[in-house]
Amino acid sequence: MELGLPLFPGIKFPTPRNTVLARSSPNNLPQFSSNASSSTSISVKPPTKTVPGKPEADVVVIGSGIGGLCCAGLLARYNQDVLVLESHDLPGGAGHSFEIKGYKFDSGPSLFSGFQSRGPQANPLAQVLDALGESIPCAKYDSWMVYIPEAEFLSRIGPTEFLKDLEKYASQNAVQEWKKLLEAILPLSAAAMALPPLSIRGDLGVISTAAARYAPSLLKSFVEMGPQGAFGAPKLLRPFSEIMDSLELRDPFIRNWVDLLAFLLAGVKSNGILSAEMVYMFAEWYKPGCTLEYPLNGSGAIIDALVRGIQKFGGRISLGSHVEKIIVENGKATGVKLKGGQFIRAKMAVVSNASMWDTLNLLPKDQLPKSYIDRVKTTPQCESFMHLHLGFDAEDVREDLGIHHIVVNEWERGVDADQNVVLISVPSVLSPNLAPPGKHVLHAYTPGTEPFELWEGLDRRSAEYKKLKAERSEVMWKAVERALGSGFNRDKCEVKLVGTPLTHQRFLRRNRGTYGPAIQAGQGTFPGHSTPIPQLYCCGDSTFPGIGVPAVAASGAIVANSLVSVSQHSQLLDAIGI
Known about the structure:
Elements: E1 56-62, H1 66-77, E2 82-85, E3 97-100, E4 103-106, H2 124-131, E5 138-141, E6 143-148, E7 151-156, H3 161-169, H4 172-185, H5 189-192, H6 206-212, H7 215-232, H8 240-246, H9 252-266, H10 275-285, E8 292-295, H11 300-312, E9 316-318, E10 323-329, E11 332-338, E12 343-352, H12 356-362, H13 370-378, E13 384-393, E14 404-408, E15 421-425, E16 439-450, H14 463-484, E17 495-499, H15 501-507, E18 536-538, H16 549-562, H17 566-575
Parallel strand pairs: 1-2, 1-12, 2-9, 6-14, 12-18
Antiparallel strand pairs: 3-4, 5-8, 6-7, 10-11, 11-12, 13-16, 13-17, 14-15, 15-16
Helix pairs in contact: 1-2, 1-11, 1-16, 3-4
């Protein structure tokens, strides 16, 4: 799940520096940390007036989330002059990490796989990193703790381990239905993974870089699938629930479990997620020898690697540079205006990594078709988040503590109900350097299910806000106490930070603190990357393929590829061996 950026009262970040990670200066990376104590309040200073260096670039990227950084990195790799403008002091968006009292916290995603994969079927983020000549050291593991109404158990990925869990905690019928599901969908994975994400572009050049280039592998995948798989391939663009219905899978445990997996992956249940996304995930998690991976220096290591890649190829990032407007001249996007008044010219394109709603607010409405404005305004939104970040003594908790814990209170309410599902990550279990010696760092959150309406209009300094904060965070505290065992005492935590939808709205600059568009497969599609304004493009979780780290990485890559020639694109694919 994607969250991100400086979220919490208790951390005072340094004054925005308009830091430019200068062209050809790969050793000048910023330090992603803060030494503030947890008793101070957050302070975000207004940006200074100008971006150092030349006030222009071939491509200006608004926002440094993973999608924006992937786009900028590939553009730099394509030898384009690219400038990323980030409103906050630190790059990273959802992947950003922050430090307090020696505890290094992830502010967003923590469940990863595929960093070490290479080749045509690799994770899109892995393909971008490969193109940039970067890698991320990871710890590998294969399980997470599950707390559901039926039982508490350690769930392992892989082709056979989960069958043992089903036999023990569900029923023999559930075992048979799970086998039936895997037998039906794993053959489809060849088609779902036949086109490398890095080969896609948003114009007719895709015929050369994807369709023609990979026609033999596509044909081979259909042959390997056999008649059943080949006839089922069109279902990849339909809701995953339709595959389950066609197989007559009715076991409540299986239906609930698949809903949970879909929700963790994309913020919607099985009736709202594309089958292609689920099939890809099943192929990653339920094949022989599969593992999950966690970056040894936290999710911030992903951002470090992307920033290094951008710098390596001459790109720039300006921090503390808040974009106030996208400038449209003669019907085309020609640059941006910063909060301090400076104009930054974009000679080729402007790329927005902001959400569709926030991008709309940057544009002059008289330059946009009413149909575009109406579509954005009527696109349903996922809800927001509650967060709990803790730093505590490792001696007080169970010795066999794992990194990930998933708590589902009631199946009947649905995994998308508020206060029902809590996700917990204790990354210091695998990466001890994220906490002081003998300590643990923990992030718990409700995954895109917290209603913004409960918080709208509240004064963050009011007693009413503090009271609601305490009430709505209690479900996370109880989940944490359940996961960590009876030795854990919340009063002994050295760091306690609670974030709300208003925190998301304020520090993520996300409209209503939303997780992203709630677009249901079969009922709508994620928008493409071009806009009604020529030379303005979008990437990130408001665009195809959607929500999630692999998806936003792919979106950034698609935009970058679309801005260069087919020849340049093909040369890159040759260079990284796909």
